[in-house]
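[AMINO ACID CHAIN]
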Amino acid sequence: MFLVTGATGDLGRRIVRLLRERQTPVRSFVRLNARYAELESRGSEIFIGDLRRERDLHKACQGIQYVISAHGSGETSNGDAETLDYQANIELIDQAKAAGVQHFVFISVLGVDRGYEDAPVFKAKREVEKYLQASGLHHTILRPSGFASNLLPLAEQFRQTGVYVLIGDPLSRTSVVSTDDLARLAIEAVSVEGARNQIFSVGGPEMLKREDIPQIFSRIFSREPFLLNPPLLAVDGLRSAIGLFNPKLRSSLGTLRTLLANEFFTTTAETEHLESTFNIKLETLETFLRRYLGV
């Protein structure tokens, strides 16, 4: 049986769906106020708990062979990078090891090893990576770039208005991964021999400039984009203003600024290695969007 944390998030939900399509037993770790009816209707076991409570993690790991940690502080207002991205994962690793889990899959983030000091999520995930590597558990660490599913709301907004807001450098390079591909990789990592105790950078099959994304929207919806391109200084100003009233939120916005200010893409060699190891052909961003948008 699999245990999936973050099971109601964009990625976690897709992991649970795919497992149930394969008739694989799965336990979904969810919060009481989360929307988990779909997962239950698909036949997933539902475990209601709090990732910040050791006893809940202990109970959730009982009878589990494989763990996929797909949760993050961005999916809830009840935690931050330290409590959810770091402490909850450290405790989850300890409980998984104590329960005899056979393989632990950790969803990290591309660029986590670059030493971004102003990005709490990056720092937390890097420390979890190191802890997992030293734990003795069989594991796979996936470092994805941006999720294609995160662009679906922007695409729907573009369908209605033709407006696309691009903060920062339009020429900055990115590799956007199909969230469905990432779900498949997370599941198959437990059985692919070449994935054991390895780290993989995960992006889409194409290296895009950020200005390419509104052009993809334009092709899909057959309308010219109206591009708004505020500078990063706008984010800095917002952070400074928020910091006067909420220093904790200001700190968390450092991760957002890091994502906007830097390039996150996979190289051709990294993509070829990933596709070869998992015997998968990665989906382009445009193909992903067309599938979900029905265009």
User: Anything to note?
Assistant: The domain at 2-147+177-204+265-283 is CATH 3.40.50.720 (Rossmann fold). The chain is about 45% helix and 15% strand.
